[in-house]
Amino acid sequence: MDSWLSQDLIARCVDGTLEYVDYGTFMSGSFWIGVDLGKHQDYSVVAVLSKAEDGVLSLIHLKRFPLETAYASIIGYLKGLCDTFKTVNSILIDQTGVGEYVVEDSVNADLPAQGATLTVQVKEQIMTYLKTVMERGMLKLPYDRQLLHEMNIEKYELSKSGHIMFTHPSDTHDDMLWALALAVYASRFQPIQAWKGRKILSRL
Which of 8, 107, 149, 201 would disulfide-bridge 116, Cβ 3.0–4.6 Å? Predict the structure, then answer.
């Protein structure tokens, strides 16, 4: 199996001057958030993107929670981000498995949350969009060794049905990568005004 994102492509997206913004920092602009949920074996990760006037996305915040972190704590973290980053246009949450309840609770907390059920087809769309944005030079990343490693080790192969299957080596993780990918995918939508209800992205 080959790497989905080449080292050269990843390197072209790294901006050595870009640094993460601390939680609680007040910022204005346009922001999108991706949330990859884990619990016992995988980590829950939150990624925040900002978009410049030229449309270039920058990863400005990345938080990996300890294993076993309660989902209520993650929702509280998202609430804090929305209180300090003005304006968060959309939060795209992996709702595969128990994640649907997190989406519902986030909406009930007045967060601009949407859910993505990560079927094979939806994963393919999200990862393809991430790769396209990177190839167009529209994504900037700080030098985060752990994130860059996760991006580089993500493998792919074609299934018998013709869809792309994504995997990572055993004893490794790709939660940061998926949080980033979800945030990038969320940014393709127009800002949500007066958000009501939730949108499921399982049939894209």
Answer: 201
CATH topology of domain 2-186: Nucleotidyltransferase; domain 5 (3.30.420)
Rounded Cα distance, 130 and 118, in Å? 15
Contacts of 51 (CB under 8 A, 6+ apart): 29, 30, 31, 32, 57, 58, 187
Query: What average pLDDT does the chain have?
Result: 89
pTM of the full predicted structure?
0.90
| Residues 16 and 170: beta-carbon distance below 8 Å | no
